[in-house]
Design a protein that fits this description.
- The complex is a heterodimer of chains A (about 400) and B (about 90).
- With about 400 residues, chain A is α/β, with parallel strands linked by helices.
- Chain A is about 30% helix and about 15% strand.
- In chain A, strands 7-6-8-1-11-12-4-13 form an 8-stranded mixed beta sheet, sandwiched between helices. In chain A, strands 2-3 form a two-stranded antiparallel ribbon. A two-stranded parallel ribbon of chain A has the order 5-14.
- The model of chain B has no long low-confidence stretch (mean pLDDT about 90).
- Chain B has 2 helices and 1 strand; from the N terminus they run E-H-H.
Chain lengths: ~400, ~90
């Protein structure tokens, strides 16, 4: 017999935010709960003058990470390996300050890459982490930027890409949306509005626009009980005017205001929470696509090679990349009334973005062979819905 | 559990004149590439697309291109359906 929550589960909703590391957003939670693999305050990086730059609880909502910290492949390589290019190098996570210094040549400013938020500044994300399940080891799929990492969430692979120029034709492995549709299930990507649009342009929006809707439609679908089996939500990527006036970017990408992202997460949560039938039959995963160049103390582990190779001209490091190491750790929280309060997913379980299509496929379709090696090997997460009785104590968020 | 208040960012946080970042520039470039006819998509054209200066400019262009792209996809689907119908009629006529 499966657990009751899993038996009642009908919908998986994924909200993927932008460019923040685990320690930056959730590292401070360790002080209250030592099970969470966050910060103890002694973690540091050397600055370019040789002094230790300690982690500090001084992260601000906006204006601090400008210019946008480097998160392209060579920059992340420096952050993880601190410039060591020897064959036996180990990931030390000692190159973040050095990497940020390279952008503005300002020692004082470069130390800000070590700043993290206190929980009171992030009431939504930290409440969800404390109230439901927080993952100690959810890594971005590639030590690189947004688009190749997001591809792992849609396809379970980036088809050999480590950058932003993802002009692949989707011939090898089908997206999770197409897999589901072909087998009679429903799936949708909700982008915020037309002015923000989707980041999944070249394959899905161009050829399969039937999978897309706007965030307003997501809200309506939640209210009407019309949510698909699988939903993927994209936040707003820019400050722009809209029908209701000024609309702030909600993706939390530096230098967008972090509080607006908090409000967006709360809006998604409330939309599911306020429909009791939907609430009891939905698992909501909130996570970030990559670390955005911001410090995290956990070295990304080696992983099963993806079967693709990125050549030295693509990696920019002078060396090929075999997709045999994960990217930097990101915040990830799973929300459901069937998850025990304060669940911390232990460090022995390693997740990455291929875990998303892996989980949706396993739950909605069962075993499917035609998937990337990484996806087939990826951990899945719905076993975290362990309770026999639905919780009645879930938090409520009031958007001022 | 008590209701948790989620504060609003200050009014000054809104800045549509902020420099468009790499993400928006890439998103726009992908859209520009995708709306072109297949024969006119050259690998190096991506570097020649005029990058947006501000987030507001990026948003305006992204909206227009998104509408065009979705319109093109719908037109392709309509043409495909019409082709299938024609093929069906021809088979019946035999």
């Amino acid at each position: 017999m499966p657990p009751v929550g899993l038996d009642k589960l009908k919908h998986i909703v994924v909200l993927m935010m932008e460019n923040r590391s685990f320690d930056h957003m959730l590292g401070a939670l360790k002080a209250a709960n030592p099970q969470i693999d966050g910060l103890d305050g002694t973690e540091s990086n050397p600055d370019t003058k040789g002094n230790a730059a300690l982690v500090q609880p001084l992260a601000d909502f906006q204006g601090q990470l400008d210019p946008d910290p480097d998160h392209h492949f060579p920059g992340v390589d420096l952050q993880i390996f601190n410039g060591d290019t020897t064959p036996d190098r180990a990931p030390t996570m000692q190159g973040f300050v050095k990497s940020y210094f390279a952008q503005r040549k300002d020692v004082k400013h470069s130390r800000k890459i070590m700043y993290y938020f206190t929980p009171d500044k992030l009431p939504v994300l930290t409440t969800l982490a404390n109230e439901f399940a927080v993952f100690n080891r959810w890594f971005s799929s590639i030590p690189g930027p947004t688009l190749c990492n997001r591809a792992f969430a849609h396809y379970g692979t980036s088809f050999g890409h480590v950058g932003m120029e993802v002009f692949y034709a989707n011939q090898v492995f089908k997206s999770i949306y197409q897999r589901l549709e072909e087998r009679g299930k429903t799936a949708r990507i909700y982008y915020f509005d037309t002015k923000s649009s989707s980041l999944e342009v070249v394959n899905l929006l161009q050829h399969q626009p039937q999978f897309f809707g706007t965030f307003n439609q997501f809200l309506a679908d939640c209210g009407n009980g019309a949510l698909p089996d699988y939903s993927f939500i994209e936040p707003n990527y820019s400050d722009h005017d809209g029908d209701g006036g000024e609309i702030l970017a909600s993706d939390q990408h530096p230098d967008h205001h972090v509080q607006e992202g908090e409000r967006f997460i709360a809006t998604v949560y409330n939309a599911v929470r306020q429909n009791q039938a939907l609430w009891e039959s939905t698992a909501l995963l909130v996570l970030y696509d990559e670390h955005g160049g911001i410090y995290d103390h956990v070295p990304p582990p080696a992983c099963l090679p993806d079967g693709f190779v990125a050549q030295p001209d693509a990696t920019g490091t002078g060396k090929p990349f075999l997709f045999d190491r994960l990217g930097v750790r990101v915040p990830a929280v799973l929300v459901s009334p069937w998850i025990a309060r304060g669940t911390v997913v232990p460090s022995t379980r390693v997740f990455e973005h291929a875990s998303i299509p892996a989980t949706a496929t396993k739950f909605l379709l069962g075993n499917l062979d035609d998937r990337s090696p990484r996806e087939k090997a990826a951990e899945t997460f719905l076993d975290l819905l362990t309770l026999d009785v639905v919780r009645g104590d879930a938090p409520e968020f009031d958007l001022e | 559990m008590a209701t948790i208040l989620v504060p609003k960012p200050p009014k000054k946080a809104y800045n549509p004149d902020r420099r468009a970042g790499t993400l928006l520039k890439n998103q726009l470039a992908h859209l520009e590439w995708a709306v072109r006819p297949a024969g006119k998509r050259k690998p190096d054209m991506i570097h020649k697309i005029k990058p947006p200066k501000t987030e507001a400019e990026a948003a305006r262009r992204i909206a227009a291109l998104t509408r065009t792209l979705i319109g093109q996809a719908k037109a392709r689907k309509k043409a495909e359906r019409a082709r299938v119908r024609r093929r069906g009629r021809r088979k019946k006529g035999r």
